[in-house]
Amino acid sequence: MERQGASEPTPAQQRILDAAAVCFGERGFHGTTTRDIAKQAQLSPAVLYVHYPTKEDVLFEISRAGHVAALEILRTAAARGGTPTEQLGELAHDFALWHARSHAVARVVNYELGSLTPQHHEEIATLRRQMEQVTREVLEAGLVTGEFALANPSLTALAVLSLSVDLGRWFRTTGTWQPEDVAKHYRELAIRMVAAR
Amino acid sequence: MERQGASEPTPAQQRILDAAAVCFGERGFHGTTTRDIAKQAQLSPAVLYVHYPTKEDVLFEISRAGHVAALEILRTAAARGGTPTEQLGELAHDFALWHARSHAVARVVNYELGSLTPQHHEEIATLRRQMEQVTREVLEAGLVTGEFALANPSLTALAVLSLSVDLGRWFRTTGTWQPEDVAKHYRELAIRMVAAR
């Protein structure tokens, strides 16, 4: 998987990131202290500071890794499909599946962006623009082939992504549907949103 | 507008609620203190406590008012349409318009539910179930008339609402599109998602 210039986290770092995702998910970034994260990770605050000098560094690493993973999912799915319709179906399916399965991390990744430093926020915004671009390019390809008919590919790309992003807010694996059920249905909804009629 | 048993806020209370929405939107519920809210409202903490004994009471009132408004928008829009297709179009349009125009409040309303007490959370969950029900009933009506063809009205109702809810996350009035542009496009997307082909 593409790492966009960052190295893979060490096992200790991953333990910190997992602990922080739990804390941020429960109490929000501003409601979490570095001591909370250290306690959740069963490490001393001193060890945490060695790896991540600030709480914001931890949030950025969670957010960066989540966005890199999401972008990779979109690219891989789009590359798998043959026609634009198949590409969009794969993309919508896999994106929904990731958000349903990883809904706790998805909440932190999507809803705490306002807590990043301006520089870190810009790095994440770049990844988000790439996610929108992959989706928009599939829609534009379908317009060229005549499979799709829609007025605004840019806004529609955001809407396709919104369907899955919002799973982080409401989806729980303890509910009526399994991640696979949602992914299958969202594949169909995304195609319906854009298909020529 | 239906108030679900609560009285209209007084001008002082509305000032507190508006101030709190700004603070929660910027720093999250857990990152905001009652002193922050009092300062933003230019009132003494003592005055704030007279109206709302706890910070959670303020969040609950913002959340309750937002959900009552959103439910009323869905009901009014659905009642305005003639056919299920028209009802769904009105509903998707007006719900998107509200979320785009009120995106700052929408963020607090949708993303801070985990900070409510269990009793307050249940009251809000009841309102959300009613919102889903209004939407689902329109979809089911369209299945009866044959205007719609879809596999899972419950999950589709959630997806229709997701499109607009996620506007609270990404939409800014400083961006490319005005709220009316998004509302018009989302009317079309929602109908496409369910229309018989």
Automatic annotation (TrEMBL), chains A, B:
<keyword id="KW-0238">DNA-binding</keyword>
<dbReference type="Pfam" id="PF17932">
    <property type="entry name" value="TetR_C_24"/>
</dbReference>
<dbReference type="InterPro" id="IPR036271">
    <property type="entry name" value="Tet_transcr_reg_TetR-rel_C_sf"/>
</dbReference>
<dbReference type="InterPro" id="IPR050109">
    <property type="entry name" value="HTH-type_TetR-like_transc_reg"/>
</dbReference>
<feature type="domain" description="HTH tetR-type">
    <location>
        <begin position="10"/>
        <end position="70"/>
    </location>
</feature>
<feature type="DNA-binding region" description="H-T-H motif">
    <location>
        <begin position="33"/>
        <end position="52"/>
    </location>
</feature>
<dbReference type="InterPro" id="IPR041490">
    <property type="entry name" value="KstR2_TetR_C"/>
</dbReference>
<dbReference type="Pfam" id="PF00440">
    <property type="entry name" value="TetR_N"/>
</dbReference>
<protein>
    <submittedName>
        <fullName>TetR family transcriptional regulator</fullName>
    </submittedName>
</protein>
<dbReference type="InterPro" id="IPR001647">
    <property type="entry name" value="HTH_TetR"/>
</dbReference>
<dbReference type="GO" id="GO:0003700">
    <property type="term" value="F:DNA-binding transcription factor activity"/>
</dbReference>
<dbReference type="GO" id="GO:0000976">
    <property type="term" value="F:transcription cis-regulatory region binding"/>
</dbReference>
<dbReference type="InterPro" id="IPR009057">
    <property type="entry name" value="Homeodomain-like_sf"/>
</dbReference>
